[in-house]
Fold:
Amino acid sequence: MCRTIAELDAQLTGCRACPRLVAWREQVAHDKRAAFRDENYWGKPVPGLGPDDARVLIIGLAPAAHGGNRTGRMFTGDRAGDFLIAAMYAAGLTNQPTSTHPGDGLRLIDSRMTAPVHCAPPDNKPLPSERDNCRRWLTEELTLLSPTLRSIVVLGGWGWQALLPALAESGWPIPKPKPRFTHAAHYELSPSIPNRSPLHLFGSYHPSQQNTFTGRLTPPMLEAVLTTAARAAGLEPPPA
Ligand code: SF4
Structure:
């Protein structure tokens, strides 16, 4: 068990527990996409991003091969990241509406982003065994954030299913019937640990191109979920 988020992020970056994903992330980093051929790809597990006293946690699926696996930063350098960061900015959760590369000035405000799987998977589809391998990192992250964490927004049904056992392991048992993923779903989870706060759990469609290009997920839809989650976590609305 890590003692701090910084320690967790550092240890995670050296993880090689999933042979298929280690091979894939390194192969992609070696081959590169033509548009990025002059860049040094990260090619390692991508840690969460944001302060260690975040009140809102946003959970995706896994880093994109030429996004996070290239830049080394969660939701940075791909279209899903562009969409998400713009919505987070509108909800007052970032200091700027874009996320292009480390060092671009992006700062997350009272919020953090992470993923149930920290290495880029082929076709954006981790195996169940890879999801289960990576759960130890998510459980530890939830536990370390628990003193301040009040809201979670899960992007997509896959992340939702991956999160539930990690929540149970980190002190927020899953009620029966199990919370169901839908866009704008909202549940309040009671803690099993004394002095732990309840947790608001929200769902949103994932900002993948499949959803955003088809209009299944629009900027106002994602902004509304993030804004509700921020308010549930006790955060003030951004200045108009
Ligand atoms: Fe480690 Fe998670 Fe990457 Fe598997 S997916 S190698 S458990 S960081």
